[in-house]
Amino acid sequence: MKRLSIVAVVAAAIALTAAGNAYADALAHYWGSGGNLRATATFESYGEVLRVCDNAADGHSAVAQLEYYIPENAGWDEWDRVWATSGNGTCNSMNLSMNENLPVRLRACIGEAGTRTIIACGNWGYTEALMATPTE
């Protein structure tokens, strides 16, 4: 038992050290009825890459929706969307150009690509856009 505790402490220390060099990223999922994963969206804050993956053969496209915070209006506005339209198991990404330290939020959705209609979405994930040079 004591050995297990030491291993856990060492693992936590390594994870915290690695996290110091990590960039804040957002991850979002949309889970359908029955707990089935239908869409996954990610935002890589360093380099501002928005990505979505379609995780279900359900006849719908997966959509990643990204919004940014406007302090003057105390509200959120849509920045962009990326669609995965080629079916289950496919992904699509978009490289964005955003201001440094811009608060953003992301969610994964399903929708109809032809009409660009969003049908349903999961919860929002939050982070900031980072453009600073990484520190080693």
Structure, described:
The chain is mainly beta. The protein has a single domain, classed as Immunoglobulin-like (Sandwich), CATH 2.60.40. 13% of the residues lie in helices and 49% in strands. It has one helix at residues 2-19; strands spanning 25-31, 37-44, 49-54, 61-70, 75-84, 91-95, 102-112, 117-121, 125-129. Strands 4, 5, 7, 8 and 9 form a 5-stranded antiparallel beta sheet that branches. A 4-stranded antiparallel beta sheet has the order 1-2-3-6, with no helix packed on it. 24% of the residues are buried. The model is unreliable at 1-23 and 132-136 (pLDDT under 50).
Kindly list the characteristics that best describe this protein.
136 residues, mainly beta, Immunoglobulin-like, 1 helix, 9 strands, globular, disordered N terminus, disordered C terminus
Short account of what is shown:
This protein has one helix at 2-19, and strands spanning 25-31, 37-44, 49-54, 61-70, 75-84, 91-95, 102-112, 117-121, 125-129. With 136 residues, the chain is mainly β. It has a single domain (25-129), classed as Immunoglobulin-like (Sandwich), CATH 2.60.40.3080.
Relative helix content: 10-25%
Compute the number of structural domains: 1
What CATH calls the topology is Immunoglobulin-like
State the helix count. 1
The amount of beta strand, in percent, is: over 45%
Q: Report Rg.
A: 18 Å
CATH architecture: Sandwich
CATH class descriptor: Mainly Beta
Query: Overall mean pLDDT score?
Result: 81
Q: Which class best fits the helix and strand makeup?
A: mainly beta
What is the number of strand segments?
Answer: 9
* Order of SSEs: HEEEEEEEEE
State the end-to-end distance.
35 Å
- The poorly predicted ranges are 1-23, 132-136
Biggest beta sheet attributes: 5 strands, antiparallel
Task: Categorize the overall geometry.
Answer: globular
